[in-house]
Amino acid sequence: VQLQASGGGLVQAGDSLRLSCAASGRTFTNYKMAWFRQSPGKEREFVGAITWNLGTTYYADSVKGRFTISRHKPENTVYLQMNSLKPEDTAVYYCAAGVPVLTTDIGGYPHWGQGTLVTVSS
Hints:
Layout: E1 2-6, E2 9-12, E3 17-24, E4 32-38, E5 45-51, E6 57-59, E7 67-72, E8 77-82, E9 91-98, E10 111-112, E11 116-121
């Protein structure tokens, strides 16, 4: 499985940004595709996830109402639309794939992309 994240950059507070994660190497039936992020000096944290089959979404409280996850099956791509960005959203964002028992459990995702840096200035 290969995951390629892209779309990061430098934006101002209040701006929007869309991240993409191109997935390949297998079919993702029954998988969850997730986004995690890691800020300097902090542990990697769950941002959100989507089930490949039905498109059911899950979000961390910190991003609920601002971030939206979607997937485009024909292109095997997952998106993270980030609106109303805040400086505290600054982090390296990673996409991940797996069949976790607990959606937010980082250990439940064996497949990871390389990460893309999002910097939000105040």
